[in-house]
What we know:
By secondary structure, the chain is α+β, with helices and mostly antiparallel strands. The chain is built from eight helices and seven strands; from the N terminus they run αβαβαβββαββαααα.
Amino acid sequence: xxxxxxxxxxxxxxxDAQIRHALIGGFAMAALGHARATNDxxxxxxxxxxxxxxxxxxxxxxxxxxxxxxVLQLNRDHPLDLLFANRPVAQEMLSRAATLPKYRGxxxxxxxxxxxxxxxxxxxxxxxxxxxxxxxxKLVELCKNLDRSRVMQYAEIFNEQDRLNNLLGDxxx
Length: 173
């Protein structure tokens, strides 16, 4: 099964169960204009539906290789990472997700929210810092209408204001 077919199937599993979700990770980067290599599918999913999500994927033949209150990592034909939106800020991210032409019908987080998750990712795992910062720079470059104030709110949560100010630079006139 191709990775794109896998993406569509995992979206359908969530959509059919009416579980709010949004694409994040490499496929979301591509939807926002930056194609980069990826070997998995990543979604932000409604954390209030945690147990239903787990059952849904187990019933579909997925194997769990990591499970916590925050993350569910599965595998079947390809790796699948589900990040649970447990806090109000993550629930707000889901509410802003929109479908984009690249992946019809699949909600995708906007660039500012993606940057927020990328800050969280490198703060939680410093070995990911360079890759996440490269993605942040690319999102800043691609998204001319980036909500800079929301990015700075995320930066403040993780005490990364100086770094993000440097990465954002001055907005173009």
